[in-house]
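Subject: for your reference before the review

Hello V.,

The reviewers asked for a structural picture of the protein, and I figured it would be easier to keep everything in one thread rather than splitting it across files. Below is the amino acid sequence we used in the manuscript, unchanged from the supplementary table.
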Amino acid sequence: MKMTDVLEDAKKEHVISQLQKANYNDTKGKSYRELKYKLAIIKANQN
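And here is what came back from the structure prediction:
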């Protein structure tokens, strides 16, 4: 596993944990980009 893969996995796991804190659990099979977009929408709607 390359270092870039490890970094991408760590970033994806962080976004997933943030989504789970916001009670969003539909993360299976989604790309980092999709998850990051969904998190941005959730955060925007909270304000």
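For the response letter, the relevant points are probably these. The two ends are 39 Å apart (CA to CA). Residues 3-12+19-46 form one domain.

Happy to draft the paragraph if you're swamped.

O.
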